[in-house]
Amino acid sequence: MIEPYKGVIYDPACGSGGMFVQSIKFIESHHGNKKEVSIYGQEQTATTYKLAKMNLAIRGISANFGAVPVDTFGKDQHKDLKADYIMANPPFNQKDWRAADELTDDPRWSGYETPPTSNANYAWILNMVSKLSQNGVAGFILANGALSGGGEEYKIRKKLIENNLVEAIVILPRSMFYTTDISVTLWILNNNKTERVVKIPDATRNYRMREEEILFMDLRQQGEPFEKKFTQFNEDHIKEFAATYHDWQQNLDFENVAEYCYGAKKSEVIAKDYSLVPSKYIEFINRDENIDFDTKMTALQTEFKDLLQTEEQSKIDLLNVFKELGYEIKL
Fold it and tell me: If you count Cβ atoms within 10 Å of the first and of the last residue's Cβ in the chain, which end, N or C, has fewer?
């Protein structure tokens, strides 16, 4: 969806580097040049940090993961970085990520409220916002609670919307992760939602002005089974969802589709008190509205009649069994 073909790519919680590997595969499959990207990441766990370095090294990809494995909030190893593409799957609802008196004046929160100590979701968001280049785009996964939280989260979300940074909110199906079965949300933030032309290896994007708009997509009913208890998107799904997003960006045959997508005006989001919950905007069909009451009641009447007749016969059969055994039940 965000098409990281050329420039600086950053992941503040990079794990073993999976996002970077997928980015390189994406570039190669679309006839791009992997030498035109620079990779930066940070990871706290020492073993995972080493795996990330190895993961890219064996693929001939140079990357800067910082001098040591360390917490991104406690020690930002890329303070002056400005990234063209940010991709992340940070820890969900991380608690006690800072002490109450720490990082209160961190420059990464400049212009926003300080994220609450009780949950790091918005700290991750603001860390990424602070790293965006002039035309930078960020795509990241968060727990659904971040779409409508109160307190400091509400104030931060309000400013993100007012600053025209939020471009798309995509709610995903349950059971897409090995570690949790909850439904989560893909956020896309864009530092430049103005009209402009961007050439990519296999297309030209004629972006329209969309500063006052946000795209909402609901993919909870999409996907296919994977390993029996999981859900995944196949290549056709991915192409369809990305095409919907790109058509909306360019106004190419985009239409609001019930139970799938809706292009909202910022005024609509403000009217709903800055909530980013997709179901507040996407139309959902009430299939009960088209049911004829008389037809439904006639069907229920027949079903209940059959049920009661069956129950009466079962009662007679049960009484006969007791009578035959010499233990007649008299009612």
Answer: C
Mean pLDDT taken over the chain? 92
> Whole-structure pTM over 0.70, yes or no?
yes
Same domain for 311 and 258: no
DSSP character at residue 280: G
277's tokens: 């919950």
Structure tokens that stand for 87 in this block: 């991709």
Phi, psi of 150 (to 5 degrees): -100, -165
Whether 179 and 50 share a structural domain: yes
Residue 2 lies in a domain: no
Q: Calculate ∠ Cα 221-227-228, nearest 5°.
A: 65
For the stretch 184-231, pLDDT in tens is: 999 999 999 999 999 998 889 999 999 999 999 999 999 999 988 899
Which helix (H) or strand (E) covers residue 217, if one does? strand 213-218
What is the spatial distance between Cα 275 and Cα 273, in angstroms, rounded to a whole number? 6
Clarify whether residues 266 and 306 are in a common domain.
no
Both 57 and 186 in a single domain? yes
- Domain span at 113: 7-280
Chain-centre distance for alpha carbon 279: 14
Q: How many domains does the chain have?
A: 2
- Degrees (nearest 5) of the Cα angle 117, 185, 172? 150
Return the SS3 of 236: helix
